[in-house]
Amino acid sequence: MNIAIDGPGGAGKSSISRAIAEDMNLIHVDTGAMYRAIGLYAIRHACLEEEQITEKLPEIAVTLRFIGGVQRVMLCEEDVTDYIRSPEVSLAASKVSAFPAVRAHLLDLQKKIASENDVIMDGRDIGSVVLPDADLKIFLTASPEERASRRYLELKEKPDCPAYEEVLADMIRRDENDRNRAIAPLCQAEDAVLVDSSEMGFHEVVTHIENLIKEKV
Ligand code: DC
Fold first, then answer.
1. DSSP per residue over 165-183, as a string?
2. Of 15, 40, 48, 56, which has the highest C-beta tally within 10 A?
3. pLDDT tens across 40-91, in order?
4. What CATH code is carried by the domain that includes residue 54?
5. Cβ distance 12 to 205 under 8 Å?
6. Residue of minimum CA distance from atom 18 in ligand 1
């Protein structure tokens, strides 16, 4: 079974997909984490420009491990899962994800994981490019203000938490990058079901999508 969940940053795709995966015995694949791993590499090696990062791709091995169903992201054998959530890595991931060679580098791996497992895969282009034949496609969204305040609540617990206004500005900038890039832009696939979670609680969204899955599969 292949379920695709796309939508803008901060819509809750990952946490909602994780909960559904647990309830329905699926593997949750967070493809954003793969782009984040490449973004982290680009920061560490100061190669954020297209030509530089494209040249380095043969040595950038991104793989996923699933420990107790929970995804860990490996970058050249190093577990980088805990280093890829900062605002700096978010922007780097958004930048490198617009480069065609970077997308091609990750596409085969994403398709392979989905062909070998029952997955719920989240990202920006899962329904449109990675899994065009998915059993169910969801486009999960919420207003930018709502997404920024959710992200802010997560970051608030951490040291160096940016101000809410900064989180909102970052969110809008990333949305623009993701929607306007030439290749595999963020968009709702024609046959995707739109779920706007602005006015919905977490469990409400989970139950709603689980019901859609049960109806469809
Ligand atoms: O979902 P996220 O915020 O972790 O994603 C990080 C960046 O990666 C985001 O700016 C867009 C990009 N991305 C993408 O281009 N395609 C995907 N399938 C997943 C993420």
1. HHHHHHHHHHHHHHHH-SS
2. 40
3. 999 999 999 999 999 999 999 999 998 877 899 999 999 999 999 888 998 8
4. 3.40.50.300
5. yes
6. 123
pLDDT at residue 169 tops 80: yes
Residue 201: strand pairing partners: none
CA quadruple 105, 111, 116, 119: dihedral positive or negative?
A: positive
Q: Are 12 and 204 in contact (CB under 8 A)?
A: no
CA of 91 to the centre of ligand 1 (A): 10
Atom of ligand 1 nearest to the CA of 110: 18
At 90-132, the pLDDT tens digits run 889 999 999 999 999 999 999 999 999 999 999 999 999 999 9
Q: Read off the pLDDT band of 200 (50, 70, 90).
A: very high
For residue 174, pLDDT over 80 is answered with yes
| Ligand 1 center–CA 159 separation, angstroms | 24
Residues with CB under 6 A from ligand 1: 9, 31-32, 35-36, 93-94, 97, 123-126, 174, 178
Q: Tell me which of 178, 179, 186, 187 to substitute to probe ligand 1's pocket, judged by most ligand atoms within 8 Å of the beta carbon.
A: 178
The protein residue whose alpha carbon is closest to atom 1 in ligand 1 is: 32
Q: How many domains does the chain have?
A: 1
**Alpha-carbon distance 180 to 186, whole Å?**
8
Domain containing 20 equals: 2-216
Ligand 1 atom nearest residue 106's Cα:
18
- Cα 107 to averaged position of ligand 1 atoms, centre (Å): 13
Is the pLDDT reported for residue 26 higher than 90?
yes
